[in-house]
Amino acid sequence: MKLAAIKPVSRVLLRELGISASLLLGVSVVVFAILYLAPGDPLNVLLGGQLPRSELALGMREALGVPRTWYGQYATWLGKVLQGNFGNSIRTGLPVLPELARVGVNTLYLIFGSLLLTLLIAVPIAVHAAAHGSTPGNTVATIVAYILSAVPVFWFGYIVVYVFINQLKMFPLISGTATKQAHAWLYFLVPIFVLGVASGTLAEMIRHLREELSRVLADDYIRTARAKGAAVWRHAFKEGFLIPVTEIMSAKMPFLLGGAVIVEQVFNWPGMGRMAWQAAQDRDFPVIMGIALVAAAFVRLGNLLQRVVFTAVNPRASKEQGP
Amino acid sequence: MRWRRYLQTPGPIGEYSKLSLWQRAEPLDLVYIGYGLLVVAVVGVSYLLGALGWLPDDPQRINVRLINAAPFTPGHLLGTDFLGRDLQARLILGIQAYFLPGLLAITISVAGGSILGVLAGYRGGWFDTIVTYFDNLIDSFPRLVLILLVVAAFKPDIYYVMVVVGITGMPVIANLIAGKIAFLREKNFIEAAHALGLSAHTVILKHILWFNCRALLVIQATLGMAEAILVETSLSYLGFGVQEPTPSWGNMVQAGANYFLQGNFWPSTAPALAILATILGFQLLGDGLNNLLEGKRGK
């Protein structure tokens, strides 16, 4: 059984790796196209009108070795990106990739922490609703989840900050000057709490998990398991729980990365989202391009993992979809 | 209203009971839809009021003697903001920031999604592969990051942003339509239509899109509006949308933030509650209609 499951997984992994690579290539084309079509010239941003005549800018281009054609520019850029050279930030002059790696870790904490929290809230409600049908209790919980999903996450952040600063007399959460204090770990937990509760994914998560689990619980094989007195949950776990959970985690990853932009802004959290905000303010192209590429790579990685789990759980999947 | 007509027509082909739509509806779904329609009506009327300039007060008039007034202050039903400007008028005017841009976004996603969905489902083959690729490509970008990229590259114009929102909304609709077409094929519905001698044109537009996908499209348009409002308010909160002194719900929350942390909740909370109530309304309307019109029946 175990051995039989391994082979399809590696085959699927190879195929999915190929798909991911082709998608990331597409991502790079989109990112490049947006910047290429943008009005204005990065050179002008860089030099800020310091050149009196346009011929000088042309000479500058020549001196910097900027290719004339768009495909030349794309190829040069892609080649550098593949070598890990995302260019230097126009604002700070620092290389983009090391900076991204530095702040990206903070964003990862934020995203995985909040994803975990959302699951901790969503799973019990969904499982209860799937197992017992609609009861007053889980109906109320579902409605509350709907309302929480529509709460603007920035405003929810203010409420939490207010409660912490004014009511609980905690350290300054905002301002980024939070020094290591007794409750330093809370500094990490509060933004995670805010994004986890109000990111807008809660209602959708409950809905998806509940629908999938209900569908599986109504299946014939579960009825058989129930009839012969076997443990229903053990039989329903893979298809009814593991697959939907990994599916929704992977599907919501991009959404949470977007939510992180806002939460990081509210809490002055030194992550990729704040960096993206700053870069968009400054029209700092290398940084925002780097963030888009890294974020997309991250999303594809999450998707890849989800496919691996799916195939490991369901070896038939690789045969069905094989080329 | 237009919604009503959609509600009374039979849903997609498949097994449906003899009961009328209203009789077999879950009470909770009707509550969702009722609340959603109320929100749509309030937003629509308020948009018209704002467009015509019929506001309770001048939204730009500064009154330094009445700063951050509480609701029910005489002359200011919903109080005033940090410059003493009337919050009710600013909330109504704030709808201008997302209403037409939001309609643009859902028009793009519905039109583009339908075309892609028909290509993938009806033509199949290579088109299916290409549409799937496009779908995965769009899904690879965190939308807000893609929007910030566009904002940085072009300019912080809400219509540019809404084009991005519209395009990123296309894959969901395309997938749903392609799925619906696969379902219709399984039921030999499309084959039967062709056997009657109908042209591909008629089959696609009338029999597939109009008879079988309109409920789905209305639902997705409703959910799309919720997304558009979320994006607009988030962006104007981040400072990339409508700029002060023009009001938008997002920049109103942002403007009230400092006072919020000092304990003056209302100027920030009023627009936040407006965002909450509106997004909730569009989402509940979409989900309620989805349960009612597209839900599994006969079980």
Helix content of chain A: over 70%
Class computed from helices, strands and strand pairing of chain B: mainly alpha
Low-confidence sequence ranges of chain B: 1-15
Which percent range fits the helix content of chain B?
over 70%
Strand content of the residues of chain A, in percent?
Answer: under 5%
Q: In one word, what is the shape of chain A?
A: flat
State which percent range the strand residues of chain B make up. Answer: under 5%
The main β sheet of chain A shows up as: none
What Rg of chain A is obtained from the alpha carbons, in whole angstroms?
Answer: 24 Å
Low-confidence spans of chain A: 174-178
Distance N terminus to C terminus of chain B? 31 Å
What's the total helix number of chain B?
13
Oligomer: heterodimer
How far apart the termini of chain A lie comes to 23 Å
Shape type of chain B: elongated
Q: Helix-strand pattern of chain A, N to C?
A: HHHHHHHHHHHHHH
Provide mean pLDDT of chain A, rounded: 82
Rg over C-alpha atoms of chain B, rounded to the nearest angstrom = 22 Å
Topology pattern of chain B, helix = H, strand = E: HHHHHHHHHHHHH
Q: Give me the count of strands of chain B.
A: 0
Describe it.
The complex is a heterodimer of chains A (323) and B (299). Chain A is mostly helical and 323 residues long. Helix content of chain A is 79%, strand content 0%. Chain A is built from 14 helices and no strands. In chain A, helix 12 packs antiparallel against helix 13 (285-313). The radius of gyration of chain A is 24 Å and the shape is flat. In chain A, 36% of the residues are buried. Mean pLDDT of chain A is 82; it is low at 174-178. Chain B has 299 residues and is mostly helical. Chain B has helices spanning 2-8, 21-24, 27-52, 87-94, 99-123, 126-140, 143-153, 158-186, 189-195, 200-238, 249-255, 257-261, 266-294. The longest helix of chain B is centred in the C-terminal third of the chain and has 39 residues, at 200-238. Chain B is elongated. In chain B, 48% of the residues are buried. Helix content of chain B is 71%, strand content 0%. The interface between A and B is large, with 59 and 45 residues.
